[in-house]
Structures are given as C-alpha cells and as structure tokens.
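seq:
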Amino acid sequence: MARIPDSGELNLQRRARLLSGVRALAGATVQKLWLPSPAVAVLQLRVPRRTTLVVLDARLALAALASERSTSSESAPRSQATLRAAIEDARLAAARLIALPGRDGVAVRLELETESGLRALIAGDGPALLLVASADGQERIVWAASGAGPERRPGSTYAGGREIAIESAADAQAPGDADLVRRALAAEETAGVAARRRELEKRLRARVQRMRRTLAAVEADAERAAQAIEDRRRAELLVPHQSRIARGASEARVPDWEDLDEHGSPREVVLPLDPSLSAAQNAAKWFRRSHRYQAAAARIAGRRASVAADLQQAEGLLARAAAATDAEALRAVEEQATAVFPARPARAERRAEAPRVPYRTFRSSSGERILVGRSARDNDALTLRVARGNDLWLHARGVQGSHVVVPGAGEAPDARTLADAALLAAHFSRARGEDLAEVSWTRRKHVRKTKGAPAGSVIATQERTLRVRLSAARLAELLSSEE
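struct:
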C-alpha cells in the first residue's frame, strides 16, 4: 500500500510538530497496545498520575498523541498478541523522525527499552509496522505486521535512516491535528475490519471446499452401498445356473422367477461377467462386495448426514462473513466459526505442544484417520503397541517403507480410505516416485514380530495385494491433510 498524503496537509513540519508531543513522554511505560490494522498501532503510555494514548500510522508516517483509542479491538490482526508481548511494560526512550536512505520518504521511530534490550517500533518504512532490534552491530527485524513485504520478514537485516533534527515546538498541537489523527485511526480501523473479513472468508471458503470434496467422496461410497443390493440380486440369480456357464463367458442369460411375463414364464436377465473368472467366482465376488457395502451402509449414511450438516453450516457462516459490514457483526461470525470449527494450531506449534507419537496422522478422502510410522523403530511401536487386532495394516510390497495403520476400520473397510492408505504406504517407501507399486494389506492381528528381528521387520499373513497407481493430485491432498 503506497503512502497516501493528507491533501497536502501532512508535510514534514506537521509530522515533526505531532511527534514533539510524543517526545515529551520519554520515560513513560507502555501499558497496553492495540492494532486497529497492520498499519496502525495505539499505545497506552503511563506517566505519573495519568495515562496517555499515542497513535503510530505507517501509511501516513506519523506518531501523535490521541484522545481516544480504536473502538473495535475485534478488528485487530492476529499478530497483535505477538507485538503486545514484545513491548508491554517497555519504557519509551526516544521518538525520532527518520529520513529513509535512498528513498523520498520519512518514517517515525519509537525507541523502547525492554527486558530483551532496545527495540524500535517503526511507522512509515513500508505499508506496515515493523519492530527492529540491534544485534552484532546491525539491526534486524524481529516482528512485522502482515503486508510488510517479503524483504521485511522477521530475521531480515534492517537498514535504518538518518535522523531529522526536530526543533522544540511550544505548540505541539495545532488546529486540525486532533481531527487528522482521528480520521487516520478511523480509516485504518475500517481497513482492519476489511482485512479480518477477507481472512475469515478465506478460511471458511477453504473449509467449504474441503467439505464439498469429502461429501462427494462419501456420496460415491453411498452409491456403491446402494449398488450392493443389486450385486446380491445378480449373485442369487447366477448361482443356480453357474455350473452350465463356460469359463471365459462375458455374459450369462438366466431366468428371473420374480419377474414373470403375461404367460407366467420368467423373463430372461443378461448378467455381465468378468471373463477372467468362472461363473462361481463372479457370484462370490458379487456376494463379498454386497456384504462389505451393506455392512458399511449405516456408517456411510451417518457420515453423509454429518458432513452435509457441517457443510451447510460452513456455507451459512461464509455468507454471513461476506455480508458483515462492521466489527461487531464480524466478531459474532468469528466466534461462531471458532466454536464450530476450531482452528488447528500451526504444525510447528502442534509438534512443540503435543507429546511425540511414533506416527504421523493423515485424513482420507472419507475423513478417516490413517497412521504412518515415522521410522523403523516407530514402525514397531505403531504396529505392536498402538494398532489393535482388527485395524488395517499396510506395507509396500517387497521394499523398505513405513507401516501404515487404519484404526477402527470395522468388518467392511471403506474402499476410498483403503486406497488412500495404500497410496501413502507406497509414497513412504522405497517405491516412492514409481508410477505403479504393490501394497500388501491385512489385519493387524495377522502381523507378528520374530525374536531378534531388526527394527521394523515383521511377518504378515493372510495378506491381500493392491496395485497402486500414483496420483500426484490425490497424494498432494493427502499430505496436506496431516494433523
């Protein structure tokens, strides 16, 4: 955001005059801080027997005394807490006006003595506020409000400017100064609400998109469950006639005694067959598939209802966020969104706060948990201590790789979850990068470890094999689902 002059009124002399009132507070203590937007900070300073408010505006490159703080703390960016923790209880050491090197502009610099050393809060060098600290003879940025730009990330070296001499001003406030500060604060407060609304909309829109994908996957499973009834019906029609149907046939014509014509004769039904299987094997396959999906039908229906309800709620919150025009309305939506859909902490925070577990957790397209061992020793811990008897267990066939567990899969494993777990097993193995890989799967109760075997080495029985074809898009979605 470029600096916007105030109709030619905000010249160097006026900035210096406004800053003189702040300079007079040297020695005051920072009690509180608010960020109406990334460009504006309001500091409450304690001086003997009273408190005073100071406004810093990065967009206008000014610091001035204020008669009121922002009325809508709900509009504050998330980084407010970080800056507050860094400078609360600090002592104001100096207030300077700085000429930016190599640029036609000025900035305001408030120097603060903190427990961690001298810090400087800078307004005007870029579109957002900066906090810098001295280290090894150089200054480095230790905090930057959102929108500061990639060259002003925390840790970057900061090139300060030359101080502009300010003569003492007997009249630190002139007609119109208070109105200027008030208008600047109100404008940035409005901008802060708009920024928070965009952030909330982005978060809710991403959740809506994820839920729509999940609902589509669950509805596909529901369609397969509905097809299970037809599979059983076809198997029951085929079984009485399977002995007379030659292997390799692509179809079977059988009578349907539940569908009679006007003469009382059964109508003929054409059943498509897999030519690589016998008629008996075709019927057995239909029976197995029918049993698997019929057993999962109730779970799939419940999952579909739950996801559909969550999606409807997320869409409603997104519509309300888009329509919010003030901080109060936006705060109500934020509170409900946080209550219904709590934000997950950042991955680094989760690693720091949570006790270490021997596995990484991902979510399948159906929303089920998939656990992936982190190392050979962790594979043993996941398989032998975490997994339960009927949990699904997977491993890339014939190569080294992570053990993968799907907990609570039940009697009828979800087909999409099984496919996603197999894709992860292939990815976290020596088969990574191959277009096609084979993955073995069985129940955990059929996996055992022999005495003296190396870490991660086990023996699995009653295995089945899946051929997994790499899907870069699906793999990216799975990896992004890590909790």
